[in-house]
Design the sequence.
């Protein structure tokens, strides 16, 4: 019923009837409880003795709960699919540049791209090479096309980053220290909509679990006319 994204601080008690099919579902659902630091939360798990999986979790209850993040299933994300590139490339580019060039690692050093732009060409090459070899079923032409596409996108991000840095006195990667403006924004950050169009490319997802684009739904009655939605 409830999982990712629900944050109700008054929710303090949950009863789980039977072990969910996936560990990720179990973790996400039960973590909705006790979101308030000043109030405790309690999760009661009722397991079925006739189900082997439930019995296994019961018999290893403490050990499994102490290490259940190891059991989280891999996300079914297709690497380098168009939507995965759209949503994940900016964060990967910035992370590789920050960690791959020692002089740019500190939080306020995002501004240093002005001095090190040419040295960051390795970022585009590294990500492009990874894209080229990720799928063994691609023929040589398809792999080369994907490599060039990803390399072009990464170089564009680096160029935009350089232009953003050139317009500012200080710049940090995200809101970490001081008052310097951030390069990366959470997709739901209201400040993102007030940024120039180029700067909006630097959206950093907290998760790549969902990579499909958002769709709009228009509700129509049987006559084909739009249904008016009452404002709440």
Sequence:
């Amino acid at each position: 019923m409830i999982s990712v994204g629900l944050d109700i601080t008054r929710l303090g008690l949950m009863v789980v009837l039977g072990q969910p099919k996936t560990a990720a579902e179990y973790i996400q659902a039960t973590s909705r409880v006790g979101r308030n630091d000043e109030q405790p939360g309690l999760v009661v798990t009722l397991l079925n003795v006739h189900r082997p999986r439930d019995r296994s979790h019961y018999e290893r209850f403490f050990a499994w709960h102490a290490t259940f993040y190891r059991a989280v299933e891999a996300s079914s994300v297709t690497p380098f699919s168009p939507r995965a590139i759209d949503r994940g490339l900016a964060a990967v580019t910035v992370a590789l540049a920050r960690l791959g060039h020692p002089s740019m690692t500190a939080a306020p050093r995002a501004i240093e791209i002005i001095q090190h732009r040419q040295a960051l060409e390795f970022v585009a090459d590294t990500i492009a090479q990874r894209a080229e070899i990720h799928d063994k079923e691609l023929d040589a032409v398809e792999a080369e096309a994907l490599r060039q596409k990803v390399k072009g996108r990464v170089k564009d991000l680096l160029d935009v980053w350089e232009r953003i840095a050139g317009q500012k006195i200080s710049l940090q990667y995200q809101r970490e220290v001081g008052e310097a403006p951030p390069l990366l924004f959470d997709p739901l950050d209201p400040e993102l909509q007030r940024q120039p169009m180029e700067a909006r490319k630097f959206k950093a997802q907290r998760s790549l679990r969902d990579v499909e684009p958002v769709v709009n739904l228009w509700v129509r009655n049987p006559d084909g006319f739009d249904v008016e939605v009452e404002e709440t």
